[in-house]
Amino acid sequence: MQEYFPIHVRNSVERDWGSEAIIISLRFASIEALCTALNLDPSLAEKLRKMGFETPEALATATVEELMYVGLDVDTSRRILREIRDSLPFLTLSGEDLLMEGLKVQRITTGSKALDDALGGGVETRNITEFFGESGTGKSQICHQLCVNVGLPEEMGGILGGALYIDADNTFRPERICQMAKRFKLDPMEVLKGIHCVKVVNSDHQIFVVDKCEEILKRHKVRLIIVDSLTTHFRGDYPGKELLPKRQLSLTKHISRLKELSKAFDLAVVVTNHVISSPEEPFGEALKAAGGFAISYAVRTRLYLRKAISPNLRIARLVSSPYLSEREVIFRIAEGGIEDIREGEV
Ligand SMILES: Nc1ncnc2c1ncn2[C@@H]1O[C@H](COP(=O)(O)OP(=O)(O)OP(=O)(O)O)[C@@H](O)[C@H]1O
Ligand SMILES: [Mg+2]
Fold it and tell me: CA 126, CA 128: separation in Å to the nearest integer?
């Protein structure tokens, strides 16, 4: 059974976590110190590190099952978790703290004012935004456009940052970036230098890249992570109903990690997602985003894309946001990228 632990804790305290509390164990300086204090085999520290628990604070978020995975019995696992959790202070943030935190969010333009408006001013940092829809609805086009726009100065709608493009569908096209850069009269080669692409071959590879990308984020001043698409490999690697719980668990952890990175590095995470048919809702949407609750709980803002009747026009519907009402807007995919439609065009 999963144990509940309410405090936000992190693997590393080196980074700027904004106003989010940095919580440091009052008793254990390291995992080794914890093992010594609890008379545990010192080799346990290395095993836990391999699982991604690098500090006592990170270990506090583990579950009993995860600790049993490294060979511990249930009682020892429970004892470790109890000791580490007791050693952490319980901190809360006031509503005012959270409001100030929200003011630090920056936004990246999508290239279309209408689409930006639907998003409350553009794609926001410190969170995950999801674009889902059928094939050809413009998900990857928006991702390419955001990679160009993130490097723009603030007055042009950017935040002067680099981009990390995690390409699961093999759709990243540098040529398309060049076309989009020209629209802003930017040197395409300079724009391409700011975009760092990793083609991932399966879900384990995708998880590995996200778990280990901190160095890349720092080195290249990355302010935007794209995962295009988030679910392709997970759906392929865990087929059928039997593997569904495993897939969802893996996906949930992967998204949590992306969310952590968005806050730790003050960057925007944009994920794309495919749709699946939803026959159980005969009077609702015929299509819904893949990935189920694992994604819908973690993603803050979700947009559903579909084709309009006119070619190159697309409709985006904001279907989920914690503070914006549902709305629908139209935009165009043109040679220069994502843009607004002309007045009276539709
Ligand atoms: N240079 C261009 N000029 C105008 N429109 C373009 C250009 N390049 C691509 N498009 C449009 O973008 C569409 C493809 O969009 P995109 O690749 O973003 O789809 P997607 O939603 O990511 O699909 P999938 O689910 O298959 O990955 C094409 O069908 C075309 O209409
Ligand atoms: Mg695509």
Answer: 7
Residue labelled with tokens 């988030």: 230
- Model pLDDT for residues 119-160, shown as the tens digit of each residue: 999 999 999 999 999 999 999 999 999 999 999 999 999 999
With a 6 A CB cut-off, is 169 part of the ligand 1 pocket? yes
CA 301 to chain centroid: 11
- Looking from the CA of residue 229, the nearest atom of ligand 1 is 27
How much is the average pLDDT of 166-187?
A: 97
**Residue pLDDT, tens place only, 264-317:** 899 999 999 998 887 665 555 667 888 887 788 788 899 999 999 999 999 999
Of 35, 21, 15, which Cα lies nearest the Cα of 89?
21
CATH topology of domain 1-99: DNA polymerase; domain 1 (1.10.150)
Nearest-CA residue for atom 28 of ligand 1: 136
User: Which residue ranges make up each domain of the chain?
Assistant: 1-99, 105-339
Q: What's domain 105-339's architecture?
A: 3-Layer(aba) Sandwich (3.40)
Report whether residue 306 contacts ligand 1, using a CB cutoff of 6 Å.
no
258 CA to middle of ligand 1, Å?
25
Structure tokens at 184: 């802003």
Query: How far is residue 81 from each of residues 30, 51, 140, 332, measured CA to CA in Å?
Result: 14, 16, 42, 52
DSSP result, 299-310: -SEEEEEEE-SS
